[in-house]
Design goal:
This protein has 197 residues and is mostly helical. The chain contains seven helices and three strands.
Length: 197
């Protein structure tokens, strides 16, 4: 059980690194899309695909990254975003958990940071807090949207079976993401089918 928990934390840590190191101001790769002021680069898509546990197409990866960026930006506007200070505190707690699990946890994190080409201390000081801030803020906003949709369904669509409720919920969620795309003026700079570098 302890090992499973440690593996989950380390896997989540890798995901956070990817989320926290968004290539916002590092145009060493062509842009794929723009979400508000944020730029998603082709290398972001490739990195996301490479580190995903699922086999994703370029379009799927780009759609996920656009949605995550939309959720993060909307979380900031809606006041449900995690502050950087809160994220630093959370990162410190996660680091303590990993390091207190013994040599196995510290060694695994050390290997991950080396593989990523990141200094261990810098990762925990800078990258992990930014990753936690984005990931938790995205989750907070997604949960807020889901609760709003659930409330609307309960108020307006009583008597539906579970399958119909799930279908309606998914349609309403997709519609909300499309509204956010308009709000943040999402622009695509590539053919969404294939990403080339």
């Amino acid at each position: 059980m302890k090992h499973t928990f440690l593996i989950l934390i380390i896997a989540f840590t890798l995901t956070l690194y990817i989320a926290g190191c968004k290539s916002k101001n590092m145009p060493d790769s062509p842009p794929a899309a723009q979400v508000g002021e944020d730029i998603i680069l082709i290398k972001d898509i490739q990195s996301y695909k490479r580190n995903s546990s699922e086999k994703l197409t370029d379009k799927q990866a780009l759609d996920i990254l656009v949605e995550k960026d939309l959720l993060f930006q909307e979380a900031q506007k809606e006041g449900v975003a995690l502050s950087l200070q809160e994220a630093k505190q959370y990162a410190n707690e996660q680091r303590e958990i990993i390091e207190s699990s013994g040599e196995e946890g510290k060694k695994a994190m050390d290997e991950i940071t080396k593989k990523l080409g990141v200094d261990y201390e810098k990762y925990w000081k800078d990258d992990a807090p930014k990753g936690y801030m984005r990931a938790i803020s995205q989750s907070n906003m997604k949960n807020k949207i889901k609760k709003e949709i659930q409330k609307k369904i309960l108020e307006s669509y009583s008597g539906l079976n579970n399958e119909d409720v799930e279908k309606l919920f998914n349609e309403m969620y997709v519609k909300r993401i499309e509204e956010l795309k308009e709000k943040y003026k999402v622009k695509y700079y590539i053919d969404q089918g294939t990403v080339q570098n």
